[in-house]
């Protein structure tokens, strides 16, 4: 007899040969079913010996023994969910593999296309090479024919050329000319070496460097002259202080003064200046004389300073005063020449470049510059001119008076713009002040004084360490420098300038506060 396992039976078992009515689910026990079957068998009248023996009732599986249908279904659902999750994971992995396979297929297709293009290009290149080779062979054949023709002509006319005396003389002269040319080249090299040796012996450090033009030499000489002027200025101050002390000693001061202002010594110094400035080349004679005139002017300044010091004039015009007048009036021929040469030099340099010392030492000192560590000077180049009013597509509408408005000026000055560019370029430094040095038709040149707030020499100086405070960061962008206060309108005084800066309250507080600062 066949046993079928079914979840719809409360016991999980039913007989395939039993009718549906007997196989219906009941609550009777298996013992009752066996008793009824025995009764049917005995009533049939057949012999029990001839019928086969009844088999024993099969046992339930161990997994569902003692469990209800609901518990069994829950277990099956849990197992189904678990296997479903595994199936989904496998399906996702297979889909990912399929996606990668498709991507690789696309890459292979593109690679196949590229390979086909490369093969086609290679075939074209081979055809071009074959064509070039064919042309080369044709050219080679043509050259061979030309050479053969030239050899034939030379053999036919060689005897005639040997008989011509003028031709042989011409060949000899040509060879002699080549020999003379080689000799001249050797002599030129020797002369150059001799000139360089002489210049090195006479000029010392001012010898011309390879690649320098005569104008470069002039600029270099003028820079050396400027440094000499600064040195003379320092010595003049030193001598003036000494003469001030000697002036109190009566008649002895005049003798000491005569020792300092010696005309013969001045002439010797000027002669020495001629030699040091490279007064050895004729093209620079005029320029060196101009530099010598500057030396004479400085010597005169020195004499005037000494005379005024001897007269006990405390407000005399010292060297810085004369230099400032030269810069302010700009009426000196020497000064105008120097400005032109320096302007040419400035145009060769970048827009922002560091300089070793200020071009205007008097102006730099008035603006706070000191020749000590922590102070830096940069030269800034700013393009001149105003701004045009932009209009879309160049179309100007309205009345004719509004057409061509080109004189719109930037509210801030070029000097303030130079300070801003220096501050943005050199973020680690703080802008102190700036001043004008030169200009041409296209650019204006300014020198900006910057201070390294992290330098110990600045932090330990009570006269300048105020700038180390973080509140003074980017002073140039907030209009706190000299140029910034000027374009803000804070320099005006007198009539129509009634505004108390920064405010009436601040002015009253400043006047009522007792300040015992060390430096004022």
UniProtKB/TrEMBL annotation:
ATP-binding in keyword set: no
Pfam families for this protein: Nsp1_C (PF05064), Ribosomal_L15e (PF00827)
InterPro entries: Nucleoporin_NSP1_C (IPR007758), Rbsml_eL15_core_dom_sf (IPR024794), Ribosomal_eL15 (IPR000439), Ribosomal_eL15_CS (IPR020925), Ribosomal_uL23/eL15/eS24_sf (IPR012678)
Record-level GO cellular component terms: cytosolic large ribosomal subunit; nuclear envelope
Gene3D superfamilies recorded: 1.20.5.170, Ribosomal protein l15e (3.40.1120.10)
Family as reported in the entry's similarity comment: Belongs to the eukaryotic ribosomal protein eL15 family. Belongs to the nucleoporin NSP1/NUP62 family.
PANTHER family: LARGE RIBOSOMAL SUBUNIT PROTEIN EL15 (PTHR11847:SF4), RIBOSOMAL PROTEIN L15 (PTHR11847)
Protein name: Ribosomal protein L15
Record organism: Salix brachista
Lineage: Eukaryota, Viridiplantae, Streptophyta, Embryophyta, Tracheophyta
């Amino acid at each position: 007899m066949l046993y079928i396992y079914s979840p719809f039976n409360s016991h999980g078992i039913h007989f395939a040969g039993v009718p549906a009515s007997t196989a219906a689910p009941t609550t009777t026990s298996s013992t009752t079913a066996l008793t009824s079957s025995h009764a049917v068998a005995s009533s049939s009248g057949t012999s029990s010996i001839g019928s086969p023996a009844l088999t024993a009732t099969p046992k339930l599986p161990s997994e569902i023994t003692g469990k209800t249908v609901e518990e069994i279904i829950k277990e099956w659902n849990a197992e189904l969910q678990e296997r479903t999750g595994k199936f989904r994971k496998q399906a996702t992995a297979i889909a990912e593999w399929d996606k990668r396979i498709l991507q690789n297929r696309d890459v292979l297709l593109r690679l196949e296309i590229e390979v086909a293009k490369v093969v086609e290009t290679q075939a074209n290149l081979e055809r071009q090479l074959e064509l070039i080779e064919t042309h080369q062979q044709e050219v080679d054949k043509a050259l061979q024919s030309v050479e053969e023709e030239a050899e034939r002509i030379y053999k036919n006319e060689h005897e005639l050329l040997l008989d011509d005396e003028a031709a042989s003389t011409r060949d000899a002269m040509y060879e002699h000319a080549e020999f003379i040319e080689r000799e001249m080249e050797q002599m030129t090299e020797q002369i150059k070496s001799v000139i360089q040796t002489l210049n090195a012996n006479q000029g010392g450090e001012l010898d011309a460097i390879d690649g320098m033009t005569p104008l470069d030499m002039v600029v270099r000489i003028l820079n050396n002259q400027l440094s000499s002027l600064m040195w003379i200025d320092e010595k003049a101050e030193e001598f003036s202080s000494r003469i001030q002390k000697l002036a109190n000693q009566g008649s002895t001061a005049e003798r000491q003064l005569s020792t300092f202002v010696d005309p013969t010594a001045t002439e010797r110094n000027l002669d020495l200046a001629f030699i040091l400035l490279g007064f050895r080349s004729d093209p620079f004679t005029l320029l060196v004389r101009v530099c010598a005139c500057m030396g004479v002017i400085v010597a005169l300044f020195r004499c005037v300073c000494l005379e005024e010091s001897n007269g006990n004039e405390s407000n005399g015009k010292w060297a810085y005063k004369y230099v400032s007048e030269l810069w302010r009036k700009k009426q000196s021929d020497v000064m105008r020449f120097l400005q032109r040469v320096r302007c040419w030099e400035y145009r060769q340099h970048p827009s922002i470049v560091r300089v070793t010392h200020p071009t205007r030492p008097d102006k730099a000192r008035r603006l706070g510059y000191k020749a000590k560590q922590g102070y830096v000077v940069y030269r800034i180049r700013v393009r001149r001119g105003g701004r045009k009013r932009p209009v879309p597509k160049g179309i100007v509408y309205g009345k004719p008076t509004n057409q061509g408005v080109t004189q719109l000026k930037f509210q801030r000055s070029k000097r303030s713009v130079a300070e801003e560019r220096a501050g943005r370029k050199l973020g680690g430094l703080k802008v102190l002040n700036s001043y004008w040095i030169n200009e041409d038709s296209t650019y204006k040149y300014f020198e900006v004084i910057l201070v390294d707030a992290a330098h110990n020499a600045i932090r330990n100086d009570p006269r300048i360490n105020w700038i180390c405070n973080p509140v003074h960061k980017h002073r140039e962008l907030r209009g706190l420098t000299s140029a910034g206060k000027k374009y803000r309108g804070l320099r005006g005084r007198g009539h129509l300038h009634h505004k108390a800066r920064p405010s009436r309250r601040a002015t009253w507080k400043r006047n009522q506060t007792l300040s015992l600062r060390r430096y004022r």
